[in-house]
Amino acid sequence: MTTSGTNLEHARAHNRRVVIEAIRLNSELTRAEIARLTSLTPQTVSNIATELEAAGILSSHLPRRAGGRGQPATPLTLNPNSAYSVGIHLDHQSLLIVLVDLTGNVRFRHLVAVQKPQPEPTLSMIEKIMQEMRQQVKIDWRKMLGIGIVMPGPFGVEGISSQGPTTLHGWDNIDVEARLSAATGWPVRLENDATVAAIGERFHGIAKQLTSFVYLYIGTGLGAGIFTDGRIYTGHAHNAGEIGHMVVQPGGRECYCGNRGCLERYLSLQAVYEACGLDPARATPEDLLQVDEETFDRWLDTAIEPACQAINIMECVFDAECVIIGGMMPPLLVEKLIKRLTPLYSSVRSRYPQGMRLRMGMSGSNTAALGAAALPIFDEFNPQYEVLLK
Ligand SMILES: [Zn+2]
């Protein structure tokens, strides 16, 4: 395949996202500050700002005093009520739907417990909850940018990791995006949980100021969300970062994929549940808080070395500014894990202190759904932008 070029229309959409993102990260910025931070020309920033202001996406505020010289500078902020998006997180045990405004405030939240969700009943349930949401929440629904949905990957992979307890079964041939889009009339984007967690971290969390980082997402399995130069890296079939089946202990523990010594046999909720004597089919992340310290530490002993190897590989392959660990494991336990990951292997990041190389990401039940809700906003080719800008 030939590398695609950037035409003017794409460039405009991209620059628009860059401006929105810059303001989101900094709460408020003047046009001059946006130009400086984004390396766009003042003229380009001015054109985009005018267009976004006319669409109500940006609001200008009282001018700041400009130190006595020149034009007073007018700061711009995002108008929370100018656009909305929906985030859906589906995994083995729960379905969470959130509606957020442009600045990330949650305006509706609905959580349902599920067990090994099957496509048809689950999609019907999602459609029903969305109808209830539209009746309950009084907003201008014409300003809906779309739906982001997150499910455990990998997608459309035969063999290797489409088997085993960490994959959702029965969804392989279901076009989730098309189904939900037809039911709601909104654009839908599907991504895997690690990718979405990385996007959420960049939008709402500690990665706000990072352009290249890797997010290790501890879910039922293990995945990595990869940001390079401010863009998410998804790979050929949206499976980039499916590192759970990277062999880190040759000849090690047997894995359902057929390999031995795969990373997620050591570092994943599935692995902790097994090590702590919990039933992986029924246990929830919160159950781990009841496990006695000694048992949990025994799991940690086995996870440290594989985790350090994974971090080393991610740093060296992607020149990541930072590796973030988060996901569905309770924050207290992620913190414990991170404390034990020392010293890290030498890598291209060796000269940075450990606290900068490795950080704790957002965790908790809203994380993935909030990241999913960022997908339609993050997608610069989302056709709903053109609708809003008319
Ligand atoms: Zn494996």
From TrEMBL:
GO molecular function, a single term: kinase activity
Keywords per UniProt: Carbohydrate metabolism, Kinase, Transferase
Domain HTH crp-type, chain residue ranges per copy: 21-80
SUPFAM superfamilies referenced in this protein's UniProt entry, alphabetically: Actin-like ATPase domain (SSF53067), Winged helix' DNA-binding domain (SSF46785)
InterPro entries assigned to the protein according to its UniProt record, in alphabetical order: ATPase_NBD, HTH_CRP, ROK, ROK_cs, WH-like_DNA-bd_sf, WH_DNA-bd_sf
Domain of life from the UniProt record: Bacteria
Family listed: Belongs to the ROK (NagC/XylR) family.
PANTHER family given in the database record: BIFUNCTIONAL UDP-N-ACETYLGLUCOSAMINE 2-EPIMERASE_N-ACETYLMANNOSAMINE KINASE (PTHR18964:SF149), ROK (REPRESSOR, ORF, KINASE) FAMILY (PTHR18964)
Protein name, per record: Sugar kinase
Taxonomic source organism: Hafnia psychrotolerans
Protein's gene: xylR
